[in-house]
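Re: the request from the purification team.
They wanted to know what the chain is likely to look like in 3D before they choose a buffer screen. I agreed to run a prediction and write the result into the notebook, where they can find it.
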Amino acid sequence: MTLRHAGAALLLIIAGITQIHVGEPAVDGAFRSWLPAAASTAASAWLAPILFAAAMLGFLAAGFGVLGVAPLAARWRTIALVAVACSLLIVVFFWSPFAPLVTLLNLAVLVAVLQVRDSAARVKGYVGPAIAAVVLAYVAAIHVLRPWYNVWGTSEAERQLVLPGDAITREPAHQYTRAMTVQAPAAAIWSWVVQLGQDRAGIYSYDWLERAFGLGVHNVGRIVPEWQHLAVGDLVRTAPPNWLGGLLGPNVGFRVARLAPSQALTLTSSFIDWNFVLQPVDSATTRLLIRTRVHRGTGVHYYLKSVVAYLALEPAHWIMERKMMLTLKERAESTVRGSAGNTAG
């Protein structure tokens, strides 16, 4: 493999990853099309996901093709040109602050297509094709599943609701909302929500996994009176002060931005707002809604965080948050059953 092949492959892979910053806002509706309102909504729902997936997967597949991975090696130029076309259509229909960068990368890819006349020598064996297949399958799965796991359990009406705490970040880069019905009054759920914190009752998720990453989380299975109080500005820790040797500072976590007991708790960090809302259905039933709103930003630091969030943190956050919601449901409903049993006794 020549240096030219390696450079072209790296360029294609970077171009593929960069599609996140024009495709994701288009899919999420953060950057609307210049088309009339109805057409713009349809374009975000149908056109943007197709173009985004085709551009990102196309650039990645072409990158593997340049490296000589069969069967992509024989078709990488065609795949790259299709990816460029899809990427440029996203830029045309859904302009974003990253559109100039993506356009420059597209032009660079076109130059590479013209200058690199063939792929590198074919990769022998199964390791290369297997790696390519896993990467492409993983990215494709995110494209397919993301619209489901980012709105897990919600109705269309709930996704459109303006929730308490939304005003903290009025124009997020994007948001996702998840919901669950809990057979308990809001006050019973609140008693568990207000205890959140690494140094308090835990995060109610897979604490063994959190401990594996050195977060020192131990979920507590009881209501602790001294943890029933929070105030605006309080720190809700997600990691101990010495996590990663203190690289991220002593206060890793969220600050309380807004709270209304038995109604809503909004936590905020430098990157996201985390909003817990309790909506009574009747005296014994509550809808638990959790909304995450990602802050807008610019620069290399924000770019890298967004890439990691899209490819890894969002799916991981859904897995962990789903477990949290299931635990909150189980414990709140157990509290109610225990209270009813004590009353009957």
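For the purification team: The chain has a mean pLDDT of 91.
Please add any questions underneath this entry.
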